[in-house]
Amino acid sequence: MSTPSRIAINRAEINKVNAQHSTGPKTEAGKQRSSLNALRHGLTGQIVVMPTEDLQAYQSHLKSFTDEYRPEGATEAHLTQALADTSWRLNRVAALETNLLSLAAIGDPLADALAIAASLESQAKALANLSMHSQRLSRQFERTVIQLRELQKTRRTQEKRDLDNVLDIIEMYESKGETYRPSDDGFVFSPTQIQVALRTRNRERRVEEAYEHHCESAA
Questions:
Q1: What is the 3-state secondary structure (H, E, C) of 101-161?
Q2: Up-side HSE of residue 86: CA atoms within 13 Å toward CB?
Q3: Which DSSP helix (H) or strand (E) runs through 194?
Q4: Residue 171 to residue 135: CA distance in whole angstroms
Q5: Cβ contacts of residue 119 below 8 Å, gap of 6+?
Q6: Which of 11, 52, 147, 148 is the most buried (most CB within 10 A)?
Q7: Rounded CA separation 164/200 (Å)
Q8: Helix, strand, or coil here: 24?
Q9: Are 79 and 71 a contacting pair, CB within 8 Å?
Q10: Measured between alpha carbons, how far is 37 from 34 in angstroms, rounded to an integer?
Q11: Domain boundaries of the chain, sorted by first residue
Q12: How high does pLDDT run on average in the chain?
């Protein structure tokens, strides 16, 4: 075997042994720095909840978004999920920035101030990287909010148009003493939705009639 090949094999064996015996950072600060280096994947990758994070807290976080937007259909559900995930990552950026600055804190206010100033200088690249991720995630969040709201606005406009059509047909059938089943025409509104819409329409008509009566009396 040639000498270069033997050297390469020896180097590979030494690296393997060193890797097996390596235990990683020993100090708490070293471990935090190591975790910060690895967490860049938590801001850009597919994994939303990191192993060090609370899954139950994430699920509660996601529920707050579904409760707010009440998505209907796969697309709205996907956008709502994307909003929650982006917001979760934004919160992680803030936590990482705090951790990065707190590595230098030792308990004395003056010393901590000086240490944090030094940390800002030494960690400038890492902080700039976090700021870049924060801006990217913020833009992504804003775009997703706009997309979701526009989608829901379009859906609700169509739902109102369909519901108004259902009410018109029901009134036409009732005038002839007949019963209309919206499902026969492919409408999927529940009886409760229809009753609420009917009460709302009747109330609006009464308000309009009261206003016209008031105008006639004042004339």
A1: HHCCCCCCHHHHHHHHHHHHHHCHHHHHHHHHHHHHHHHHHHHHHHHHHHHHHHHHHHHHH
A2: 19
A3: helix 191-218
A4: 54
A5: 100, 101, 103, 104
A6: 148
A7: 11
A8: coil
A9: yes
A10: 5
A11: 3-158
A12: 78
